[in-house]
Write a structure and sequence with these properties.
single chain; about 220 residues; OB fold (Dihydrolipoamide Acetyltransferase, E2P); five-stranded mixed barrel; two-stranded antiparallel ribbon; about 20% strand
């Protein structure tokens, strides 16, 4: 009898351990399965916005000339192809160099020595984004007092990396610069009268009063 009771106790212990282990394993599995569901209920869902990929097609499209007129970005984008060529570019003035009245106003003109007193005569133009700038020089000095920040310029000129004008050397190896040949839609005469009015400009041209850009150096000698 004692031996039978002992075997019964051992069997009960073994079975109890087995079923207890099964119960614990089942609970652990349920806890593991319930974990993510509980986490999903508590943790907030935050949408992650990734930056848009670069718009290479848009950049290339913006670089193309419209009706033969380049933007500043278009010139810089195709600089290797366009450098040293005559191009037409349009942009708004974002910077104007200091005025030099002895050169830019007829009544103030004196001797040729005043050229050395002038630091530079140039303007900087940019596209609508104001990021891609190009310096413009070589225009007749009488235009300079009339250039204001925000004014739009439509220019035909030579696209170069360096030039010399009025005793100054301009070097722009990165973006290049424009040596103006013609300023479209505006004019100035020997009296210093400046106009952007189409009728006045036509009359100025008809009377032979318009100062051509190519005579800029000659007129200031």
């Amino acid at each position: 009898m004692a031996i039978r009771r002992q075997r019964t106790a051992v069997l009960n212990a073994v079975l109890g351990g087995f079923f207890g282990g099964v119960f614990l394993t089942s609970c652990a599995q349920e806890a593991t399965q319930a974990g993510p569901e509980l986490h999903e209920q508590v943790a907030p869902k935050v949408a992650i916005e990734l930056p848009a990929p670069p718009d290479f097609d848009g950049a290339m499209a913006a670089a193309k000339p419209v009706d033969g007129i380049y933007s500043t970005w278009g010139l810089i984008y195709d600089k290797q192809k366009l450098i040293d060529k005559v191009v037409r570019v349009r942009g708004k003035i974002v910077e104007v160099s200091d005025d030099c009245p002895n050169l830019t106003k007829p009544r103030k003109r004196k001797s040729r020595q005043v050229v050395s007193k002038c630091q530079s005569l140039s303007v900087v133009i940019a596209g609508d984004d104001d990021l891609h700038t190009i310096r413009v020089t070589g225009y007749h000095p009488y235009y300079h007092p009339h250039f204001k920040v925000g004014m739009e310029l439509d220019i035909t000129g030579q696209y170069v990396e360096q030039t010399r004008f009025l005793g100054m050397v301009y070097v722009e190896p990165d973006n290049g610069l424009i040596v103006a040949h013609r300023l479209h839609g505006m004019g100035v005469n020997r009296a210093g009268k400046f106009t952007t009015n189409r009728n006045e400009l036509s009359q100025m041209i008809a009377r032979g009063e318009l100062l051509e850009i190519k005579h800029a150096m000659k007129e200031t000698d």
